Amino acid sequence: MTGNTNAGAPRTLYDKIFDAHVVDRQEDGTCLLYIDRHLVHEVTSPQAFEGLRMTGRKVRAPERTIAVPDHNVPTTAGRESHIDNLESRIQVEELDRNAREFGVHYYPVTDIRQGIVHIVGPEQGWTLPGMTVVCGDSHTATHGAFGALAHGIGTSEVEHVLATQTLIQKKSKNMKVEITGKLRPGVTAKDITLAVIGKTGTAGGTGYVIEYCGEAIRDLSMEGRMTVCNMAIEGGARAGLIAPDEKTFEYCKGRPHAPKGAAWEAALTWWKTLFTDEGAHFDKVVTIRGEDIAPVVTWGTSPEDVLPITANVPAPEDFQGGKVEAARRSLDYMGLEPGTPLNQIRIDAVFIGSCTNGRIEDLRAAAEILRGRHLAEGVRGMVVPGSGLVRHQAEEEGLDRIFTDAGFEWRLAGCSMCLGMNPDQLAPGERCAATSNRNFEGRMGYKGRTHLMSPVMAAAAGIKGHLTDVREMMAPAETV
Amino acid sequence: MDKFTTLTGIAAPMPLVNIDTDMIIPKQFLKTIHRSGLGKNLFDEMRYDQNGAEIADFVLNQPAWRESQIIVAGDNFGCGSSREHAPWALLDFGIRCVISTSFADIFYNNCFKNGILPIVMPQEVVDVLMDDARKGANARMTVDLENLTVTTSDGQSFPFELDPFRRHCLLNGLDDIGQTMEKSAAIDTFETQMAQSRPWV
Asked: What number is the ipTM of this complex?
């Protein structure tokens, strides 16, 4: 295939996908990479479409471009007809206008298939193994769960992809993250991905594409794999990948935009070659034993501030270099005293949703903990399904009733509180157990305090009114 | 895009590690459909209190650094989201260069699309530059992209490395899309081949 410089040498999964998409390679290694799927949302695209208009350019491949509003949309009823916030409304209307004018695939808020772009893509079969997938959103890494090379881009690059269906890229380095053996009960995909970031730091993956592998990764469902890859970016990596297998193929089969018949068979033949060859070189290797991972939570304002729920809030002096001051600032922002047991930290809110944990399996897991139980007094809870179809499926299974009986609000699909661009926000000082991906200052609302964790841990915290070890609430033989 | 050749200006010291894109430009300012006008909200929640008044001890509010064109920052600057609003806000404020030990990948890329030069330096050099930046308005740092050097106000010069293609584009203010459009024949060929080899895409 074009641009494959060392055919025959053992290659990683990343090498193979990259090589298969090289349109042009300059002498210095700068490549033009073909993009198979371009996902677009309302926040990072208006300036890109405007750029096309100003230069008289077209969208080169509208059939490979998929637009859906998600960041700004309210998650309450009535949003189909009116969005109160003027600026949000303008962005959603701009996307509507751009999608129609440039003729790209489009799921407006009136469509049950609307949802968070990274949930809609896989759900509709747009995301398939071996593809290159980009979006003006850092959590594009999610799609790596399919063995697709997927990463976030800025708005200038969105415009570049719209105009040329390619991206100027240099090859990243290869990093392997292996999770060996089995996970213990109560430990989920979210705990894996947070534990990895806790070990490598938020810059540990900078300059790399991660391939996650090992028995514990193989054992995950597609939903779980998406959770793991979703947060590759929080570890600093450009993308996270998992080699496709029977679970991947089974998930893709029959999806609206997946190939059918002979095309499916042809695709499958190629997809089965998408694995890292024996002896391929990794520039960095991290190995964690699955059984060593406990349910974890974050205590600070960086996703690397991860500890097992059984630990205590650390002190700034526990760190070195610039992290000492960062930890001091985090503890002050989070209103936490060093030495406090994490499982005594009281919360005001629970948020279940986001592109990290807004899929049906996440809702099922949280509902299982909440069944027959209720949020602690004074704690508010919000469940925001990742898409209209996830919401519908959950309602078919009666999960919505479990959530509402437990005192949660049952919302419409969108990014919601994860980044608080719509009205779903924390009040200053409010503390939230969240299944989202970033605990940055102000992320979920001005002066809001975020503790990241898995859906079952967030559900358990809601019931107790403080961070807690979900394993204490599970029947002895129960596994999640 | 403006060319970047040589810049002599005030450098603001921001030693905090992991300065994320939410800090650089909080989400409420992502609702714009324009690229310009974000400078006043750069570092908004660090720079202003809840009533919109300036927080006096924040570096860019202090008289010595209000006109900064360079930031010397702690590790992993620009981590977090892909929002290009972060470099747009920096540029709109007047920042043309950020120096750190490391940058988050997407932010690093986005800088080059906007004529901002991110420079990676080893910790010991960042430490020297940070001290120089702390001197304030009378101390000017010089960044020379042609010769790939950063020179402190007292004349200490440090070399840095940069991808030659990125350097070329920045020096000449080249537009990526225009350059790629010149390769459209290669893209056509790739698409024709792909219709055979991966028709399901």
From this structure: 0.94
